[in-house]
């Protein structure tokens, strides 16, 4: 095995020697080339190794037989020796060829050196010639690199240029304030262009700058929105005025068209006795002319307000994804503006212009909100506008209720009503519910009626102040027709009379009748455009007319009747006037029926209370006549100047009483125009009051003494009163009814004149007593006054038997009368 190893090593040195590979070799020779020889030697060595491997018996090596290893080594040495021999044989066999090959190689060496020189020279030439090519090649390479770089740059620039162009476009849009377009451009940059060039620094700068641009756009758009809100706040009144004007024109046109339709369907119908076709055609023509004139002047809310800031701001915030913030801000600001608009001026109630400005601002506000509601999506919702309108409506009603209460001019209240109706119609046209406003109008209607009543109270007072309280004189037919045209008076007897003649009433009657009709017209004006039925309007007119009659006119009449300067003649004329006004109430009902076309026979039709009103006024006037007549009697009675101690009467009645009777005769002649019962009651009341006054004169506590002569004189005056009563100063009394007013005086005076005490005392308490009306207390009082007179004037009466007997009789009668009086008190 060691020999084999040495053999391998020797061959390896031979084969690996460098000189061997450099030996000259001529391929044309027949010898083996060195490479071939080397290959064969290696093949032999490999074969030898294979033989060795095949002859190995590993199991014998590891066998447990004694001396197995030694035997194996011996066999291996023998095998090696055999192979060494074979190798020597092989080498010897090929040695000559190997030597020949080396010889040939040595021959080739010279040629190889020559070739090497040639190759070296050629290489040098090639190198010299290639230097210029290398330079050019390097230039070409450099150009190719530059070209590639340029191509790359162009590609990158083509990628970056759209980004730069879009960013430049963004800057232009920002400069031109086209913010919505700018936001769209930003979206394109972020979604399309920036991802392509995100690796470049300029792109990062642009990306970092976009949020700042968005914030700038938000601030600018919000600033524009604030300017817009301020602008519409200033122009709300103009917007509202335009909207209300359009609503008024539309309403006028609709009313005129309705009138035309009524004319077309009822050309042969008469309304209130008149044919209104021509008037309606004129009104319709005028309405069409006004419509044509105003057609060119009609402006819409878009013409008055530029809404682009709202649209722009809404779109911007929508693009930015912050639409909710914008909606909340807009609604909050508009609610603040609504509160400002709804706040009225303190002196708004003074003029109609104050109310008009208030309404136009509110209409302008809600017209803008309605426009925003319909042209935007979500910025203003119907629920929001309804909530805002309900809040505003409550405030409007409270403001109108408070300020209208200060209005004392019915014309101003009527103009306010027309403004409220126009205000309600305008907003109703935009879809806002206005029923509560019409409910408010019913409250204002009551206030309007109150102001009308106050105004007509002044009118009635002026009429009463200007009246002369004498029948209306007429001298010709024209004057007669004028009065008849003002007041529905019918009297066949008066018509038959020749001129000049007189109406029984005074000038105030036709004036009052005309003013009541004017009041009805004024009430009707308020009921127009309230969208109420004819029945409701009829009911309102009748109720307001009843208030005028029962409160205003009645109060004015009562105040007139109670005025101190109104005399009996005036009171008589007032009673006559109220009688004719009462008769005219049915004509007022017909007048209202003609206006409303509601028949009086309708179940729910309200009746006028004028009959009771004028009856109450007449009763008050009658009572005032009785009072004043009694006061006049008291004035005459106060002129009485009796000598209560006279011994003999004058033989004629007192002057004051004759004057009083003459006065009563003249007054009762005036009463001939009064109803019979009124004159009779006045006459009876006067006689009773005169009788009572005379009785009180006799029984006056300050009167201490009365002589028989005074009683006789007093009896003469009572006789004159009885003669006056029997002369029937007022027709209609039956028998001596009027004379009974003086029966108490007559029986008392007869008792004293006849001195018939025995009869009085004997018959006292009997129904058929001659002195039934003489009260014991009255007789006692008068008798004591006469007794005191007898004692004072007859100092020596005790020395005359007749006088003594008379005095004793008086004392006896006094005692009996006192006992009667005491018995009456105990019985009571």
Short descriptors:
two-stranded antiparallel sheet, rod-shaped, exocytosis, mainly alpha, 29 helices
Describe this structure in words.
The protein is mainly α and 828 residues long. It is 76% helix and 1% strand. It has helices spanning 2-16, 18-21, 34-55, 58-61, 68-175, 179-193, 201-265, 277-295, 301-304, 308-319, 323-342, 352-375, 382-404, 410-429, 435-466, 477-486, 492-496, 508-527, 534-561, 568-583, 585-596, 610-638, 655-670, 676-698, 708-726, 743-754, 757-763, 776-793, 801-827, and strands spanning 472-474, 501-503. The protein has a two-stranded antiparallel ribbon. Helix 1 crosses helix 5 (68-175), helix 3 packs across helix 5 (68-175) and helix 14 (410-429) packs antiparallel against helix 15 (435-466). The chain is rod-shaped and about 235 Å long. Mean pLDDT is 80; it is low at 1-32, 44-48, 50-55, 265-284, 291-296 and 794-799.
Q: If strands are numbered along the chain, what order do they take across the biggest sheet?
A: 1-2
Poorly predicted spans: 1-32, 44-48, 50-55, 265-284, 291-296, 794-799
Mean pLDDT: 80
Strand segment tally: 2
Overall 3D shape: rod-shaped
Question: Helix tally?
Answer: 29
User: What is the makeup of the main sheet?
Assistant: 2 strands, antiparallel
Q: How would you classify the helix and strand content by structural class?
A: mainly alpha
Q: What fraction, in percent, of the residue positions are helical?
A: over 70%
Radius of gyration: 71 Å
Compute the separation of the termini in Å: 189 Å
In percent terms, what proportion of residues is strand?
Answer: under 5%
């Amino acid at each position: 095995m060691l020999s084999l190893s040495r053999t391998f090593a020797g061959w390896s040195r031979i084969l690996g020697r460098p000189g061997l590979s450099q030996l000259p070799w001529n391929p044309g020779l027949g010898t083996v080339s060195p490479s071939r020889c080397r290959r064969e030697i290696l093949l032999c060595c490999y074969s030898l190794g294979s033989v060795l491997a095949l002859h190995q018996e590993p199991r014998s090596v590891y066998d447990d037989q004694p001396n197995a290893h030694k035997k194996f080594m011996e066999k291996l040495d023998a095998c090696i020796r055999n192979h060494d021999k074979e190798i020597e044989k092989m080498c010897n066999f090929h040695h000559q060829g190997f030597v020949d090959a080396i010889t040939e190689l040595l021959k080739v060496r010279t040629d190889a050196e020559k070739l090497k020189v040639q190759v070296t020279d050629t290489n040098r030439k090639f190198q010299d010639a290639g230097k210029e090519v290398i330079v050019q090649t390097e230039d070409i390479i450099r150009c190719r690199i530059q070209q590639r770089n340029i191509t790359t740059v162009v590609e990158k620039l083509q990628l970056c240029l759209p980004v730069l162009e879009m960013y430049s476009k963004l800057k232009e849009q920002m400069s031109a304030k086209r913010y919505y377009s700018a936001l769209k451009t930003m979206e394109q940059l972020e979604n399309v262009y920036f991802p392509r060039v995100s690796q470049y620094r300029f792109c990062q700068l642009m990306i970092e700058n976009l949020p700042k641009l968005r914030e700038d756009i938000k601030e600018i758009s919000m600033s524009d929105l604030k300017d817009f809100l301020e602008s519409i706040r200033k122009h709300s009144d103009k917007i509202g005025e335009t909207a209300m004007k359009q609503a008024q024109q539309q309403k006028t046109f609709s009313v005129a068209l309705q009138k035309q339709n009524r004319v077309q369907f009822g050309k042969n119908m008469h309304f209130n006795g008149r044919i209104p076709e021509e008037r309606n055609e004129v009104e319709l023509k005028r309405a069409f002319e006004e419509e044509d004139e105003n057609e060119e002047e009609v402006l819409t809310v878009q013409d008055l307000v530029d809404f682009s800031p709202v649209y722009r701001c809404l779109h911007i915030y929508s693009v930015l994804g912050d639409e909710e913030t914008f909606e909340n801000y807009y609604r909050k600001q508009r609610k603040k503006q609504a509160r400002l608009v709804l706040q009225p001026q303190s002196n708004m109630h003074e003029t109609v212009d104050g109310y008009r400005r208030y309404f136009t601002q509110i209409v302008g506000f809600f017209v803008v909100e309605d426009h925003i509601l319909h042209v935007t999506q979500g910025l203003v919702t119907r629920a929001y506008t309804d909530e805002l309108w309900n809040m505003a409506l409550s405030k409007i009603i409270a403001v109108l209720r408070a300020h209208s209460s200060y209005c004392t001019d019915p014309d101003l209240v009527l103009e306010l009503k027309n403004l409220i109706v126009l205000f309600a119609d305008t907003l109703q046209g935009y879809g806002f519910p206005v029923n509560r406003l019409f409910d408010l109008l019913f409250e204002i209607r009551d206030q309007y009626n109150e102001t009308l009543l106050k105004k007509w109270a002044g009118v009635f007072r002026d009429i009463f102040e200007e009246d002369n309280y004498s029948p209306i004189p007429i001298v010709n037919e024209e004057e007669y027709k004028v009065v008849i045209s003002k007041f529905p008076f019918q009297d066949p007897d008066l018509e038959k009379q020749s001129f000049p003649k007189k109406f029984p009433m005074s000038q105030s009657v036709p004036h009052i009748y005309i003013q009541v009709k004017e009041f009805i017209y004024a009430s009707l004006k308020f009921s127009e455009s309230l969208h109420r039925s004819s029945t409701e309007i009829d009911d309102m007119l009748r109720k307001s007319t009843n208030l005028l009659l029962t409160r205003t006119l009645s109060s004015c009449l009562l105040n007139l009747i109670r005025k101190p300067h109104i005399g009996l003649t005036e009171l008589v004329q007032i009673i006559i006037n109220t009688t004719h006004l009462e008769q005219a109430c049915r004509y007022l009902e017909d007048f209202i029926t003609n206006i409303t076309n509601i028949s009086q026979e309708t179940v729910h039709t309200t009746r006028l209370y004028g009959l009771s009103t004028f009856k109450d006024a007449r009763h008050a006037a009658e009572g005032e006549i009785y009072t004043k007549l009694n006061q006049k009697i008291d004035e005459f009675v106060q002129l009485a100047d009796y000598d209560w101690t006279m011994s003999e009467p004058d033989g004629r009645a007192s002057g004051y009483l004759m004057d009083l009777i003459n006065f009563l005769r003249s007054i009762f002649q005036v009463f001939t125009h009064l109803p019979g019962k009124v004159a009779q009651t006045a006459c009876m009341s006067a006689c009773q009051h005169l009788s009572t006054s005379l009785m009180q004169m006799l029984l006056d506590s300050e009167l201490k003494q009365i002589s028989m002569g005074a009683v006789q004189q007093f009896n003469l005056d009572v006789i004159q009163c009885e003669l006056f009563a029997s002369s029937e100063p007022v027709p209609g009394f039956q028998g001596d009814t009027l004379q009974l007013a003086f029966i108490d005086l007559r029986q008392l005076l007869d008792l004293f004149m006849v001195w018939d005490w025995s009869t009085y005392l004997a018959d006292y308490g009997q129904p058929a007593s001659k002195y039934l009306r003489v009260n014991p207390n009255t007789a006692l009082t008068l008798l004591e006054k006469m007794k005191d007179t007898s004692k004072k004037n007859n100092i020596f009466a005790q020395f005359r038997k007749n006088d003594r007997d008379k005095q004793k009789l008086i004392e006896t009668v006094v005692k009996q009368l006192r006992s009667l009086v005491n018995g009456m008190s105990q019985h009571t």
